[in-house]
Amino acid sequence: MKGTAARMGVMKRVSLVFKAKANRxxxxxxxxxxxxxxSYQRQLELLTKVRRGVADVATSRKRVELQMNQLQQQANKLxxxxxxxxxxxxxxxxxxxLERKASAQGQLNxxxxxxxxxxxxxEKLTVxxxxxQSKVDAFRTRKETIKATYTAAEAQTRINExxxxxxxxxxxxxxxxxxxxxxxxxxxxRAGAIDELMASGALDDAVGGQRDDIQNxxxxxxxxxxxxxxxxxLKGEITAGAPKQLEGGANGNSQEAPRAQAPxxxxxxxxxxxxxxxxxxxxx
Length: 284
Description:
It is a single chain. The protein is mainly α. Helices cover 81% and strands 0% of the residues. The radius of gyration is 61 Å and the shape is rod-shaped. Residues 249-284 have low confidence and may be disordered.
């Protein structure tokens, strides 16, 4: 018994949760404008049915009215025949005609009662149709007003959500931008890390072949030695050029242009004034 009660309780809770979720989903999917249009359409259908009923009652009333006219004509004819039969001394024929007239009069009375009933029902349905028409017209006016107000409120809400960035579309765009920025930062960090690893030699070059740490150290020492040698050469050139400038200034030849320095391995050019005189022909 306890197990059955527990199962019943679980089933009730499941049913309640399902109904709540279904109601929430339906409320989210429902569009008041569509609901109003559907209600208006139903009212128009009801109004059409009422008008069709009025037309049917009026048709029945008209048919009864035609039958009443026929019976009245028949009763009048029988009365004339009875009068003529009495004038000719045929009382038996007059009696038969009056009996038929009484039967027709009975049918006529029944039709008159039916006619009065149909006429009253027709008037009642006509009034109901007019009232329903007024209600449908009023509902239509109110429906259009509510639809216009709802549409304006919906547009204003979408504009406000777009400005505040809380709408679903703007949220998706914001998330896409955030993901793009995160991926860009990740790729930049990866590229920087790979550059550092390649510069330090910790990352092997798959194209150039594998290099060990000893070769890397020798390459670094060779590059440093080349730099030191170049620095020493520049210092020597600067030091060699300084005494010549000082000597020229002490002899008062400050206006003399500096001699051109010959490249390494080639003799420096001697000015013509300092060259020894070449022996003339015939001189020892």
